């Protein structure tokens, strides 16, 4: 009986993983669009004030079970990956 | 005009951030439940085979823009945070 419960929870976890995958990539696509606009306007891609605002908003809405510090850590990794994606785009543009 | 476009994209990004927050915490809650069952059954909390299976599934369904290596990196951080959450639970239980 317990084994079924574990299997069911694992199925739910797989489902949540795929939803997270979709959202993380949707976020990356939006970040790419923002990067293109900023690029055209000669704006700086990295905006530490905006990043801090986003983290503060996430912490404000965080009801756990993850601690605020963990949420901050995970999202900083996601933000960094987004920034690297924009930098890759810029490099490709330079090569064209 | 362009400024509005940027603001709109930022609003979408904030919205996606909050959806991600909810899913990341939902995932953490499921991981906690799995940890409790494993604990009762005396099973090992960390299962590298299962972790590899989850990563393989994510890579299989990854349509970008993030590269597979980036997806793997982000999810490994999320998995690690989940595992730390279970370990915290265990420590609290020992203190009771």
From TrEMBL, chains A, B:
This is Protein AroA(G). Keywords: Transferase. Signal peptide: none annotated. It comes from the Bacteria. The chain holds residues 1 to 96 of 361 of the full protein. GO terms for biological process: aromatic amino acid family biosynthetic process; chorismate metabolic process. GO terms for molecular function: aldehyde-lyase activity; chorismate mutase activity; transferase activity. Residues 1-90 form the Chorismate mutase domain.
